[in-house]
Amino acid sequence: MEKTFLMVKPDGVQRGLIGDIVSRFEKKGFQLVGAKLMSISNELAEEHYGEHKERPFFGELVDFITSGPVFAMVWQGENVITTARGMMGATNPKDAALGTIRGDFGLTVGKNIIHGSDSAESAVREIGLFFKEEELVEYSKLMNEWVY
Ligand code: IDP
């Protein structure tokens, strides 16, 4: 089953949005297979956002993502990577549709509440960066027979 890495960023944690965000993915029918509240080191932040190293906002991005705890998660389900991106909304909350997480809760691109892997390759890479194999839980969920 497809898996993706999702993370409530420090602004979402501080604003008390973890519960709402988890609830949206649960209600959609996805299955949580790993989760933890954690601090991100500078080293991990630079690795995670490596593709943006040359961008002018890179320093700001690393400072922000290390500024407070994040809630890191792994979710699984059919098409979870693309569907979760849709549920998050556009990168800049001002362009994100209402009903999406960024559209409902955010105002600026620098504080856009949530991160989600953008491809199968990113999902594998990011899950590996944030979680050890033994932190992911394989279990069958009774709900699934009413989802699929
Ligand atoms: P994504 O998070 O929707 O995949 P990316 O383009 O991969 O978007 O950018 C990563 C993160 O970098 C964004 O979520 C946002 O927090 C931040 N970011 C993107 N563009 C800007 C900018 O112009 N200024 C400040 N932060 C930015």
From TrEMBL:
The catalytic residues are H115 (pros-phosphohistidine intermediate)
- Tell me how this protein assembles: Homotetramer.
Q: What does this protein do?
A: Major role in the synthesis of nucleoside triphosphates other than ATP. The ATP gamma phosphate is transferred to the NDP beta phosphate via a ping-pong mechanism, using a phosphorylated active-site intermediate. (Microbial infection) Catalyzes the phosphorylation of dZDP to dZTP, when the bacterium is infected by a phage that produces the substrate for the synthesis of dZTP (2- amino-2'-deoxyadenosine 5'-triphosphate), which is then used by the phage as a DNA polymerase substrate.
InterPro entries, sorted: NDK-like_dom, NDK-like_dom_sf, Nucleoside_diP_kinase
Q: What is the main EC category here?
A: transferase
Protein family (similarity comment): Belongs to the NDK family.
Q: Name one GO biological process term.
A: CTP biosynthetic process
NCBIfam families per UniProt: PRK00668.1 (NF001908)
Q: Where in the cell is it found?
A: Cytoplasm
> Where Phosphoserine occurs, residue numbers?
S122
Q: Any idea where the Nucleoside diphosphate kinase-like domain is?
A: 1-138
Tell me where in this chain the PTM Phosphothreonine is found: T91
Tell me the residue numbers annotated for binding ATP. Answer: K9, F57, R85, T91, R102, N112
User: Which GO CC terms are listed, alphabetically?
Assistant: cytoplasm
**PROSITE patterns, per the entry:** NDPK_LIKE
* Short name of any one Pfam family annotated for the protein: NDK
Q: Which UniProt keywords apply?
A: ATP-binding, Cytoplasm, Kinase, Magnesium, Metal-binding, Nucleotide metabolism, Nucleotide-binding, Phosphoprotein, Transferase
Write down the EC number.
2.7.4.6
Q: What is the lineage of its organism?
A: Bacteria, Bacillati, Bacillota, Bacilli, Bacillales
Q: Which GO terms describe its molecular function?
A: ATP binding; metal ion binding; nucleoside diphosphate kinase activity
- Identification of the protein by name: Nucleoside diphosphate kinase
Q: Report the cofactors.
A: Mg(2+)
For this protein, what reaction is catalysed?
dZDP + ATP = dZTP + ADP; a 2'-deoxyribonucleoside 5'-diphosphate + ATP = a 2'-deoxyribonucleoside 5'-triphosphate + ADP; a ribonucleoside 5'-diphosphate + ATP = a ribonucleoside 5'-triphosphate + ADP
